[in-house]
Amino acid sequence: MNTLSFFNPRFTSDLFDVIDRNFSGTETSSKCSLPRVDVRETKDEYVLDMELPGSTEKDVEINLKDRILSISSAKEDKKEEKVDGEWLIRERVSKSFSRSFTLPEDIDSEKVSAGFKNGLLTISIPRRAQSKARTIAITAS
Question: What local confidence, expressed as pLDDT, does residue 30 receive?
């Protein structure tokens, strides 16, 4: 079984990733929460599902370079020029995120595809066919 790991250029240890995720300041985490991801492995591919409620495919950017899959979004709230009254609570602010994953070596990067339906981003990452061992006949000369 291959591994798929989170990529964080600031830290190389999983322990630091957990600390960074769980102990970030409340101000930052409320404005920049990371969407949750489910990843499954089949015989032929890896499938990554990410819930992005309220987003569309135009809000998301996906890049793949050197086996690092990056998913990001920057969505600005709609500015209201003039409102009647004064805001008492205003929680709908702009939101953005960026997540990166280091993919296994057996991927076929040319055939990666993505789909978006009902707020669910699904990325299919096909696996390359692994070469099978074969017996080589020895001929006498």
Answer: 42
Q: What angle do CA 46, 52, 58 make, to 5 degrees?
A: 95
Report residues of the chain scoring pLDDT below 50: 8, 10-16, 25-31
Beta bridge partners of 99: 71
> Strand, coil or helix: what is 50?
strand
Q: Hunting for tokens 């096909």 — which residue is that?
A: 126
Q: What is the rounded distance in angstroms from the CA atom of residue 59 to the CA atom of residue 75? A: 6
Q: Phi then psi for 105, rounded to 5 degrees?
A: -75, -20
Query: Mapping DSSP to helix (H, G, I), strand (E, B) and coil, where does residue 63 land?
Result: strand
Q: Could you tell me the pTM of the whole model?
A: 0.66
d(CA 40, CA 67): 17
Locus of tokens 């790991």: 5
